[in-house]
Design goal:
By secondary structure, this protein is mostly beta strands. The chain contains one helix and 14 strands; from the N terminus they run E-E-E-E-E-E-E-E-H-E-E-E-E-E-E. 33% of the residues are buried. It comes from Massilia phyllostachyos.
């Protein structure tokens, strides 16, 4: 099954197109982002059937790229197979330029988000492709509504999502403009 989504940045200067594919044992997300800070990038995220990230590729227009793999339990490696110890324990992934990555912990944890849940993310800043650990928290407030907290910077937002856990509204940052 394939579905396409689009988000626009709240200021109207950025746009993202995402193709989400559900296959037998893998979920593949391929997105293209034209950012509001004069950058463009493409990404591909592969997850297992339980929404645990297994690989990520990010390519920034102009040539910079990043490839990482994970065992799905918090051990990450770079494209040369070297362990990325600074990401140990990071199960989920957050790419700064897209609201899609908020879907990953929402889908992976499902009903487990009834209470506030603190997580460690492998956070990728676009366009620099800096990668670091980022502590975050998610709390299900109501059906299809979650509180997102970026604990290291004191940011908080209430996210509205659809039945598939994809963001519809991310106040002050993104609003979905197309869905399947």
């Amino acid at each position: 099954m394939n579905k396409c989504y689009r988000w626009r940045s709240e200021d109207g200067a950025g746009l993202e197109h995402l193709e989400l594919q559900w296959r037998d044992d893998v979920i593949v997300a391929e997105g293209v982002v034209v950012g509001d800070e004069a950058f463009g990038c493409g990404y591909r995220i592969c997850c297992d059937a339980g929404w645990r990230v297994r690989s990520v590729e990010v390519q920034v227009a102009g040539g910079a790229s990043l490839v990482m793999t994970t065992d799905g339990d918090g051990a990450w490696r770079d494209s040369d197979g070297r362990k990325l110890r600074h990401l140990d324990g990071c199960i989920d992934l957050d790419i700064s330029a897209t609201p899609f990555t908020n879907t990953l912990p929402i889908r992976r944890l499902g009903d487990g988000l009834q209470e506030r849940t603190e997580l460690l993310m492998a956070w990728i800043k676009v366009p620099t492709l800096e990668v670091r650990r980022a502590p975050q928290a998610y709390t299900r407030l109501a059906p299809r509504r979650y509180r997102f907290e970026a604990l290291d910077i004191g940011f908080e937002a209430t996210l509205a999502v659809d039945e598939d856990g994809l963001v519809i509204d991310y106040p002050a940052l993104f609003r979905r403009v197309r869905a399947p």
